[in-house]
């Protein structure tokens, strides 16, 4: 499948992606409005965010380059020390940038 990069093609793709994103977000809220939020459901929701994070980071840790691995390690260490996500993420980005800039 090929889409022209000029004209209405890119705008159409962005519009379709926006509609799909809104449908999944609103659909999830709609479905969850029928689910009573008890102790087990709240535990499931809390555990789900961690499992999604691990699912995203595990392939990066296994198959990423040195910069990606250094970024993950730096982020983890700074997060454990400071317990604040924003400085940890910034440190990870900086570590990857420096590693890649130096071409180690």
Features:
mainly alpha; 4 helices
> Helical residue percent?
over 70%
Structural class: mainly alpha
Net shape: flat
**N to C succession of SSEs:** HHHH
Q: Name the average pLDDT.
A: 89
How many DSSP-defined strands?
0
pLDDT under 50 segments (min length 5)? Answer: none
DSSP strand (E) fraction?
under 5%
State the separation between the terminal residues, measured CA to CA. 39 Å
Q: What's the domain count?
A: 2
Q: Give the biggest sheet.
A: none
Radius of gyration: 20 Å
Count of alpha/pi helices? 4
How would you describe the overall organization of this protein?
It contains four helices and no strands. By secondary structure, it is an all-alpha fold. Helix 3 packs antiparallel against helix 4. The protein is flat and about 45 Å long. The chain starts with 8 loop residues before the first helix and ends with a helix. The model has no long low-confidence stretch (mean pLDDT 89).
